[in-house]
């Protein structure tokens, strides 16, 4: 069984349920997961927002539609507008 986790001090926090009772002893083989580091993610976001918005009408339209959906869901759940 492969399970992802995050090391915090002497504890490894599992990112999914492994369906074992608490207190069960387990053996671990540790491999460092390769993920996009924070620096890489920040660079990608910075590159995205620094480029010209011309030609990104699809993106803008999608964001507007998501905002409308969020507002409609908020209205449905709470009976009043989000804003």
Describe the secondary structure blueprint for this structure.
Elements: E1 5-8, E2 11-14, H1 38-50, H2 57-78
Antiparallel strand pairs: 1-2
How would you explain this protein's 3D organization?
There is one protein chain. With 83 residues, the protein is mainly alpha-helical. It has a domain at 1-31. It has 2 helices and 2 strands, in the order ββαα. It has helices at 38-50, 57-78, and strands at 5-8, 11-14. A two-stranded antiparallel ribbon has the order 1-2. A hairpin with a 2-residue loop joins β1 (5-8) and β2. The radius of gyration is 21 Å and the shape is flat. The relative contact order is 0.07. The mean pLDDT is 84.
Sum up the structure in keywords.
single chain; 83 residues; mainly alpha; 2 helices; flat
Strand order of the largest sheet: 1-2
Number of DSSP strand runs = 2
End-to-end separation in angstroms reads 46 Å
What oligomeric state is this? single chain
Listing every helix as H and every strand as E from the N terminus to the C terminus, the arrangement reads: EEHH
Radius of gyration: 21 Å
Give the percentage of residues in beta strands.
Answer: 5-15%
State the shape: flat
Low-confidence runs (pLDDT<50, min 5 residues)? none
By DSSP (H or I, 4+ residues per run), the number of helices equals 2
Sheet with most strands: 2 strands, antiparallel
In short:
The chain is mainly alpha-helical.
